[in-house]
Automatic annotation (TrEMBL), chain A:
<keyword id="KW-1003">Cell membrane</keyword>
<dbReference type="InterPro" id="IPR030946">
    <property type="entry name" value="EcfA2"/>
</dbReference>
<keyword id="KW-0067">ATP-binding</keyword>
<dbReference type="GO" id="GO:0005524">
    <property type="term" value="F:ATP binding"/>
</dbReference>
<dbReference type="InterPro" id="IPR050095">
    <property type="entry name" value="ECF_ABC_transporter_ATP-bd"/>
</dbReference>
<comment type="function">
    <text>ATP-binding (A) component of a common energy-coupling factor (ECF) ABC-transporter complex.</text>
</comment>
<keyword id="KW-0813">Transport</keyword>
<keyword id="KW-0547">Nucleotide-binding</keyword>
<comment type="subunit">
    <text>Forms a stable energy-coupling factor (ECF) transporter complex composed of 2 membrane-embedded substrate-binding proteins (S component), 2 ATP-binding proteins (A component) and 2 transmembrane proteins (T component).</text>
</comment>
UniProtKB/TrEMBL annotation, chain B:
<dbReference type="InterPro" id="IPR050095">
    <property type="entry name" value="ECF_ABC_transporter_ATP-bd"/>
</dbReference>
<dbReference type="InterPro" id="IPR030947">
    <property type="entry name" value="EcfA_1"/>
</dbReference>
<comment type="similarity">
    <text>Belongs to the ABC transporter superfamily.</text>
</comment>
<dbReference type="GO" id="GO:0016787">
    <property type="term" value="F:hydrolase activity"/>
</dbReference>
<dbReference type="InterPro" id="IPR027417">
    <property type="entry name" value="P-loop_NTPase"/>
</dbReference>
<dbReference type="InterPro" id="IPR015856">
    <property type="entry name" value="ABC_transpr_CbiO/EcfA_su"/>
</dbReference>
<dbReference type="GO" id="GO:0005524">
    <property type="term" value="F:ATP binding"/>
</dbReference>
<keyword id="KW-0472">Membrane</keyword>
<dbReference type="Pfam" id="PF00005">
    <property type="entry name" value="ABC_tran"/>
</dbReference>
Length: 289, 279
């Protein structure tokens, strides 16, 4: 399912003294099967964009196209259920939304709300729990007896059980330890690959954006500042740093190295392996003088 | 001579009467004026320790002493004056209807005179660069902005010890660096002691000392230098290694003569430069 935002504008609390322009003229194309990362400062409008992706917010200008649904300011929207089933959002700290007595009931809640029978929902719960790397024995437990990392996975399973075509992740690894972070991101990446799930990742982690995304959108002050592949985005680190954004460690390192040696490497390295390779061949050639 | 400010003496704690201990026989000294980073996997007991420090929970065994005061139900309010806590999720720590009310809340509770209070609220918000949001409702701020306000609320009280429990994990890199820099300056100017519970290894690398927790036990303590030599051992604990250390190691594997596993990129670049000029 394709999603596209065309010149989207959103104002909070229109026609009140508190009216505030959150995003304007935002155009983003998300063809089916894309892994898109959205980066930008806190307050740059990332979360506002995110809430348009399944019509939690209706634009105050422009249009949002989700599959065959067109959402604009002037049209009354009816029956958005289908859109919300197809685009699953994993919010920040999704474990705070767990509420049922058992993990199974919690995961089944979403699908059953969308009209799936209990039997099918339970089957999906079993599939979803294994997708997030937990054992079936956890289904009968109370979600509140689980560790933080497990709770996060259960909450994610609840979104996956709705069989979405698109999954939107808002800082999905915040607060996890490094291993948990890697496991969760690898899990989303493999879901993306194997189920051709369009994935939209809102993140502060430039490492994750560069490692997993096909395409990166940089938001600044409520607008799209730039769109490109990781290599396009990170080949010009000065620009990002100027904006107060970070670049991946390896890019930062290359920059520092190039400055020390007064010499540009032939390419921008995005992984530590590439970087070590570059440094090694550079030193062994010894042709810099 | 380092002065020990906080002593955790053989503490054990569990949340339920049944179930496992969240902390087992942990003894730690925290020194005046130091920046102590506490690292460990999720569920290793880091945050539990923070909650014991200011009496949100009490250990079943062992004792905690803060600035010569033994922590108990009777002393808990005195100890909370000395320790300011900033938690991970800013949404859970707002009470005021505007940013300045929120920062003033703690000061009001302490009966700080109004003139002084206004000044301190302003200063605290300036130090986290939120002074332009005085009359905004906290709930209209972004996550990172909220967290800066929460930190301002603690800073305004000028505690001797500030505990950051994953307090910067929701901030963007610049926001994070700004907040940490703020805390560094406050630490220096007010001789504050900082205890930072963190997954950010680059931050931990800049601490004076690191404590590694594993499954409720103290696994190791030492300088960042000492701790990051543990290398793969850290990975097996669910942690990671800072980028420069990883890079040093990979270069070494390719026979590039780096002198040691560097904690900072500057050092590593300098080292590569030296080996280059020798070639």
């Amino acid at each position: 399912m394709d999603i596209s935002l065309k010149n989207v504008e959103y104002r909070y609390q229109v026609d009140t003294p508190f009216e505030r322009l959150a995003i304007k003229d935002v155009s983003i194309e998300i063809p089916e099967g894309t892994f898109l990362a959205i980066i930008g400062h806190t307050g740059s409008g990332k979360s506002t964009v995110l809430q348009h992706l399944n019509a939690l917010l209706k634009p105050t200008g422009g249009e949002v196209v989700i599959g065959d649904r067109v959402i604009t300011a002037d049209k009354k929207q009816k029956n958005l259920k289908e859109v919300r089933q197809k685009v699953g959002i994993v919010f920040q700290f999704p474990e705070h939304q767990l509420f049922e007595e058992t993990v199974e009931k919690d995961i089944c809640f979403g699908p059953m709300n969308f009209g799936v029978s209990e039997q099918v929902a339970k089957k999906r719960a079993r599939e979803a729990i294994s997708l997030v790397g937990l054992g079936e024995e956890i289904l009968s437990k109370s979600p509140f007896d689980l560790s933080g990392g497990q709770m996060r996975r259960v909450a994610i399973a609840g979104v996956l059980a709705m069989n979405p075509d698109v999954i939107v992740l808002d800082e999905p690894t915040a607060g996890l330890d490094p291993r948990g972070r890697k496991e969760i991101m690898d899990m989303f990446y493999s879901l993306h690959k194997h189920k051709n799930l369009s994935t939209i990742l809102v993140t502060h982690s430039m490492e994750d954006a560069s490692r997993y995304a096909d395409k990166i959108v940089i938001m600044q002050k409520g607008q799209v500042y730039k769109t490109g592949t990781p290599i396009e985005i990170f080949s010009n680190p000065e620009e990002l740093i100027e904006m107060g954004l970070d670049v991946p460690e390896v890019v930062k390192f290359q920059q520092r190295l190039e400055k020390a040696f007064q010499r540009k490497f032939s390419k921008t390295c995005l992984t530590i392996e590439e970087m070590t390779e570059e440094v090694s061949s550079f030193l062994k050639r010894g042709d810099s003088r | 001579m380092k002065k020990s400010l906080v002593q955790l003496d053989d503490i054990s704690f569990k949340y339920d009467t049944e179930g496992d201990y969240a902390l087992r026989h942990v003894s730690i000294d925290i020194y005046e004026g130091e920046w102590l980073a506490i690292v460990g996997h999720n569920g290793s007991g880091k945050s539990t320790m923070a909650k014991l420090l200011n009496g949100l929970n009490f250990p079943q065994e062992g004792s905690i002493t803060v600035d010569s005061l033994a922590l108990s139900e009777d002393t808990v309010w005195d100890i909370r004056d000395k320790i300011g806590m900033v938690f991970q999720n800013p949404d859970n720590q707002f009470v005021g209807t505007t940013v300045q009310d929120d920062v003033a809340f703690g000061l009001e509770n302490h009966g700080i005179p109004r003139d002084d209070m206004i000044k301190r609220v302003q200063q605290a918000l300036e130090s986290v660069k939120m002074e332009q949001f005085l009359d905004q409702e906290p709930h209209h701020l972004s996550g990172g902005q909220k967290q800066r306000v929460a930190i301002a609320g603690v800073l305004a009280l000028r505690p001797d010890i500030i505990v950051l429990d994953e307090a910067t994990s929701m901030l963007d890199p610049r926001g994070r660096e700004e907040v940490l820099e703020t805390v560094r300056i406050l630490k220096k100017d007010h001789k504050m002691t900082v205890i930072s519970i963190t997954h950010d290894l680059e931050e931990a690398a800049k601490a004076d000392r690191i404590i590694v927790m594993n499954k409720g036990e103290l696994y190791k303590q030492g300088t960042p230098e000492e701790i990051f030599q543990l290398d793969e051992e850290l990975v097996s604990l669910g942690l990671d290694i800072p980028f420069p250390v990883k890079m040093s190691k990979m270069l070494k594997a390719l026979d590039i003569p780096v002198t040691k596993y560097h904690l900072s990129e500057e050092e590593l670049v300098a080292d590569i430069w030296t080996s280059h000029s020798k070639m």
